[in-house]
Here is the input.
Amino acid sequence: MGARRAACGGRWLAAALGLVLPALLQAQTPVPSLSSIPVVQPPSVQALPPGAALRVRVQVADVPGLARLLGEPEPAAGPAGAAGWLALRLPPGGHADAGGPADGLASSFIVDHDDPAVRQLAAQLQAGRAGAGVAPPPGPPSGAEVVAFVARHMRTSYEANASLASEVARSLQGDCTEYALLTAALARALGLPARMVQGVAIVQAEGRWQAYGHAWAQTLEGGRWTLRDSALAGFPGPVYYMPFAAMDDEGPGYRLTLLRAQGRLPQRIEVLGPEAPAPR
Here is the structure.
């Protein structure tokens, strides 16, 4: 496995935050990312027990703001917007509800699923759910079906700079942002509520912990918002997610959401170690 630097996130965060955006490759599985974040390593890096949560401390400019977003207790002392550290317990493959747009089915400025290119891909996804001579099953697809379709049809590219789902549907290439855009758009087009999240992915690779800015989608299934990450669908190990921005504004001013969240973007992450699952 090797590592390389490449542009990721395109006009989304590059324009909004002015970040230099690297990416990691693991066994030919790309980890498209928005920004590399320094990680303080534990004394030893060991294999994680299956299902183990990860204990971390994150250094951010706005500790109270990040605590509120993640549903964590706010610090007892310090003014609003104060910098410092926040201790977190991150479950593998999921995270606390960070919010999103009021309507998870709407066609919006960036998740424009009413565009013909998106509708054509959605019809292709739906048709693929049927067997030979058999009609597709009733109702929308599962989030897992959407993820599998996007992962199968998208090509990872760090030169793509799509801002709209319709642009991604036409190019079928991009980084984590484009993967998340298309995932949310196809889910909505087929009646499955979906939203986008910007945050951080923490992975164990090359014998050490690594943290990268990242983008993913969530789908509403069984009354719960479930994390759906098409970009890391084939990653060979657990991924720990920490959102710092919920894309609740999908209009032309969506970049303001990212600017307002800049204080919640971790400056440094300290990995404390895994937390074993509670005994059953």
Remarks:
- The CA atoms of residues 106 and 188 lie 7 Å apart.
